[in-house]
Amino acid sequence: MSYRKTLKLICGFAGGSAVLVFAAAAADSRGYFGEQRGEAASRWPKFTVLRAAQPAWTPAKHTPAPTGHAWDFNWDKRDPSVLSNGKKKESATEDPSSEQDNGKPKATRNILLIRHSQYNLSGNSDKERILTPLGREQAELTGQRLAALGLKYDVLIHSSMARATETAHIISKHLPGPGVDLVSCDLLREGAPIEPVPPVTHWKPDAVQYHEDGARIEAAFRRYIHRADPKQKEDSYEIIVCHANVIRYFVCRALQFPPEGWLRMGLNNGSITWLTIRPSGRVALRTLGDAGFMPPDKLTRT
Questions:
Q1: Cis before 176? omega within 30
Q2: pLDDT tens digits, residue range 64-91?
Q3: Which DSSP state fits 88?
Q4: Tens of pLDDT, residues 139-189
Q5: pTM of this prediction?
Q6: Pick from 137, 160, 141, 146: which is nearest to 238 by CA?
């Protein structure tokens, strides 16, 4: 096999690092490092240095070690195996395995978190911070996108703040079916969930705001983000229209990521974040801040 063919073969199997070692060895064998071909004793120490500069070709060296804690399957305190522990049987003839199986969730919850559209930042009060003309157009596009997904939505819950309420009402006009119930919730209002890490200089709420808003937003998470009730027979699709800080905190909590990392994510106005919660308690993030259905000139993040 020619030198060129050998070089190509090694490149295909091992990549550039292996080619570097092979080329160095070939050059060394031809005396390009300044020795004669017979000076093997002085040649190999230099080749050893080249080999030491390359990573060890073992899987352990290329696989990051796991960090953090193991997945907590009872993160929502609804794991049936935990709930059944210590539970007194109704009768001696009752089959405990059947009882436990009947108490297991069987449906998957799909929660689509929508960030409100662009709004009037110069408003002095919440009532004045209504959607801009572009914001209303964004809400229309989001509603059209949700309708195009062809899903059967069960409920539309929204923050009680003006910009989220208006966004939700525009979206609701596009949803298929006889009509999806709209539910307003104060827990979903915008706020400061937890002090972000790393900190930012342009936004520094008082400690009391984290203390008050954090408890409220955590209460919203516990109310809306959990596995299905055992009585739920079919998969559900629920829409929650709220705010960027709330959504980002929800995502970190649901995925069991450090919640203080919520500000490391960015969300466009009218974007869709999709969480799936399996009966087992597993959580998947299907989309984060999806706004690809909007034309580029309609994208904002205010």
A1: no
A2: 777 778 999 999 999 998 876 545 444 4
A3: P
A4: 999 999 999 999 999 999 999 999 999 999 999 999 987 789 999 999 999
A5: 0.76
A6: 146
Nearest in space to 118 (alpha carbons), one of 142, 93, 98, 87: 142
Rounded CA separation 251/112 (Å) = 11
Taking a C-beta distance cutoff of 8 angstroms, is the pair 155, 119 a contact?
Answer: no
Question: The tokens of 214 are what?
Answer: 């954090």
Q: How far is CA 279 from the centre of its chain?
A: 19
CB proximity list for 217: less than 8 A, separation 6 or greater:
187, 191, 193, 245, 246, 249
The token pair that represents 23 in the structure block:
């080329």
Kindly state the tokens that stand for 154: 């069960």
3-class DSSP assignment, residue 46 = helix
Topology of the domain comprising 109-295: Rossmann fold (3.40.50)
What the block records as the tokens of 189 is: 């209002």
What is the Cα–Cα distance from 297 to 176, expressed in whole angstroms?
27
Place of tokens 């064998």: 29
